[in-house]
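Issue 218. Parser rejects a valid record. Input:
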Amino acid sequence: MSEAVNRLSLPVSAPVSPAAPAAAPEKSAVRAGPGPRALFLISWLAPLALLLAWEAFARAGVLSPQVLPAPSKVFVTAWNLIGQGRLLSDLGASLLRASAGFVIGGSIGFGLGTLVGFSRLAEALFDRSVQMVRAVPFLAALPLVIVWFGVGEGGKVFLVSLGVLFPIYINTVLGIRQVDPKLIELGRVTGLSNWPLIRRIVLPGALPSILAGVRYALAVAWLALVIAETIAANVGIGSLAMDAREFLQTDVIVLTIVIYAGIGVLSDGIARALERKLLAWHPNYAGRGR
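Output the parser choked on:
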């Protein structure tokens, strides 16, 4: 591990005479922009306006119910499916598959990314193979997944894990290799050994990139789940959409799309909250009310 940490460090440069303290900047006469709460409200204005326009066009007959039903109709459909007990069970099944796949794929991606980020030997052993598998589309791998796992839960979780693995792997490697070598040298000067150096400097320095990979992986997880739930699934949001397609139930199809979009927004919000908590020390994240 010491060789891996040394690879991130640079020779110490010659001491530089301290510069004169910079003059305090004058207070700008320009007023600051809207606050975090106002920006949050503004960010929802466009979706709300789109929803109202959609409802208005549907009620005016511009949009056919067979093509794009009104949001109110979609809401009534959702309420009826909840009353029948199907929507919540399908949603629970999809969330369970996505969560299991995310944990498995994310753990493997982070472990491999950490190994490759610190070791050139590990990069030679694993990176090219990972990049080759990453280039294979989900749909191309689908027949092989069915042969391996059948139509059970294993194949669905495998596809989600596969989709999640690559963004976290790539961003973990990138984050570790972008840590400022001068920080590594500073840690050595202050007497940190290898493991404390990695724990207190390298991994925190790589954390912004790793969390960016987590946000991207959350989106890919739902994309993979949509494909996975076409494998003869009897329960799940994808199964609900497939059944609706067979019976030309446009309102149910639109409902499943809205659910996927809502879960995506919620997942991204959780990832942003995680960024604010774990990166409170970082000047680019501190104080952000996103």
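Fixed in the parser; the record now loads. The chain has one domain: 69-278.
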